[in-house]
Amino acid sequence: MFEKRISIFTGHFGSGKTEVAVNYAFRLAEKADKVAIVDLDIVNPFFRTADVKDKLAEKGLRVILPGYVNTNVDVPSLPAEINAIFENKEYKVVLDIGGDDLGAKVVARYRNNIIKDDFEMYFVINTRRPLTDTEAGIELAIREIEESSGIKVSKLVNNTNLLQETTVENFLEGDAMIRNVSERLGIPVGFASGLEKVIGNLNNYAEDSKLMLGKYIKLPWEG
Questions:
Q1: Taking the domain 6-222, which CATH number applies?
Q2: Higher pLDDT, 171 or 98
Q3: Is 173 helix (H, G, I), strand (E, B) or coil?
Q4: Mean per-residue pLDDT for 78-99?
Q5: How many Cβ atoms are within 10 Å of 54's Cβ, its own excluded?
Q6: Judging by DSSP bridges, how do beta strands 92-97 and 62-64 pair with one another?
Q7: pLDDT tens across 160-192, in order?
Q8: Which of 36, 73, 76, 96 could bridge 21 with an S-S bond, Cβ 3.0-4.6 Å?
Q9: In the 8-state DSSP scheme, what is residue 43?
Q10: What CA–CA distance (Å, rounded) separates 115 from 166?
Q11: Are 35 and 61 in contact (CB under 8 A)?
């Protein structure tokens, strides 16, 4: 799952997209010398890469954040530094983008750079959240992202969870839904992500297609 130079993560509100992107970046940094993570999520002010920027930097990752992060401003003002990431092919890049049509429009600014490069566009799914709790809802969300970004989703990520209450049975119920969507849309399931107590007990995923998540992103009520 770490082969491509650019890995884009999108997903609906509550999918856990940013947590997955951050954990993916940490794992990627174990395999590549130069890794950058870019926060392009202008939609959701509660779950941002900025929350963990110091830990990422400590591990040697280059962290690129919009200028409005951790302020009262929420406008699509994006740093010129992002362009350098596309030009410098020495870096492997993780992009965390917003999970609705507005968020996807931001990455559309860089569409020409992305489609010329070696990339994967992941759609992170939590079937225990509204709007992606049915197969029809998942398919609609994917179409909206693709239409707004101008980029096709190339892999699905099963991140079905109820936080600490998640069971293997919960995850497998979501897995069945996601695999049905995968078959209909012709989009492969890229990997499974979640807490070790769940992911460690999955038999229908190869070891190299499991991403065990550490808890890095604070919930709004956690202060």
A1: 3.40.50.300
A2: 171
A3: helix
A4: 88
A5: 9
A6: unpaired
A7: 999 889 999 999 999 999 999 999 999 999 999
A8: 96
A9: S
A10: 36
A11: yes
**One-letter amino acid of 105:** K
Compute the mean pLDDT over every residue in the chain, rounded to the nearest whole number. 88
Q: Is the pLDDT of residue 23 over 90?
A: yes
Q: Which helix (H) or strand (E) holds 7?
A: strand 6-11
Residue 156 Ramachandran class (φ > 0 left, ψ -120 to 50 alpha, else beta): beta
- 216's tokens: 């890095």
Q: Where are the domains of the chain?
A: 6-222
Structure tokens at 100: 């609705």
Token digits of residue 14: 């509550």
Please provide the DSSP assignment of 205-221 as one string: S-GGGEEEPP--SPPGG
pTM of the predicted model as reported, rounded to 2 decimal places: 0.91
Provide the token pair at 9.
């993560």
4-19 burial: b if 16+ Cβ within 10 Å, else e: bebbbbbbbbbbbbbb
Q: Using an 8 Å Cβ cutoff, are 211 and 193 in contact?
A: yes
Task: Please state, in angstroms and rounded to a whole number, the distance separating the CA atoms of residues 83 and 92.
Answer: 14
Task: Please give the distance of CA 68 from its chain centroid, rounded to a whole number.
Answer: 21
What is the amino acid identity at position 191? F
* Tokens 């996601």 -> residue: 178
Q: Which stretch of DSSP H or E encloses residue 157?
A: strand 155-158
**What token pair was written down for 115?**
């489609």
